[in-house]
Amino acid sequence: MPTGESALSAAVKSRSIDMRGGSAVTSSPKVDVLEAVAAFDGILKSVQVDVQKNLEASKAGTLPDSSSPANVEGTGTQKLEFLLDKSGNYASSGSQYGAGKEVSFTFWITDPDDHYDIVIKSSDGGGGSWTNVAPYQKCSGKIVTSLWHSTTITITIHAYKSQNVTGHAQLDYSY
């Protein structure tokens, strides 16, 4: 990780934006490894950055007529890690403002070689629950965020056999 600033902060600050078809399209840089719930926090922070850029463009009169300040799109990939405890469990949650955007995601665990029960949920709806998931088996869903308040994302993972080990996963997303 960069010193003095987290990889997540660096990724959010270095986002690029261009205007295509009346909406902001962004592409997130890849971040080496994040703690699992931090990845969803990063996605929602990306939404905030994109909405803010569109609002500034709207105020400056540089936003195309067909766009609205909150009309943003983005995609990205996050590599994640999670620490399984002595019972093979990982649980974490985080809250972030998501500007009312719906985020589509595909999540999969790459290691350790085990089977898992996975739950990803949003306080505003969406997410999913998957059982007996093998490594590299993809779990897809959508999380809903609120326009009016912060959204809490909760991730729980249970490994059938693995304990006291760091696992790795990948998260692809779009909004």
Quick summary:
This protein is α+β, with helices and mostly antiparallel strands and 175 residues long. It contains 2 helices and 11 strands.
Describe this structure in words.
- With 175 residues, the protein is an alpha+beta fold.
- It has one domain (7-174): Jelly Rolls (Sandwich).
- It has two helices and eleven strands, in the order H-E-E-E-H-E-E-E-E-E-E-E-E.
- Strands 1, 2, 3, 4, 5, 6, 7, 8, 9, 10 and 11 form an eleven-stranded mixed β-sheet that branches.
- A hairpin with a 3-residue loop joins strand 7 and strand 8.
The structure class reads alpha+beta
- The share of residues in helices is 10-25%
Average pLDDT taken over every residue: 78
The overall strand count is 11
Low-confidence spans: 1-33
**Terminal residue distance:** 26 Å
Number of domains: 1
The main pleated sheet reads as: 11 strands, mixed
In the CATH classification, which architecture applies?
Sandwich
How large is the count of helical segments?
2
Strand content is over 45%
CATH topology descriptor: Jelly Rolls
Q: How many whole angstroms does the radius of gyration measure? A: 17 Å
Global shape:
elongated
| Secondary-structure element string | HEEEHEEEEEEEE
Please write the CATH class name.
Mainly Beta
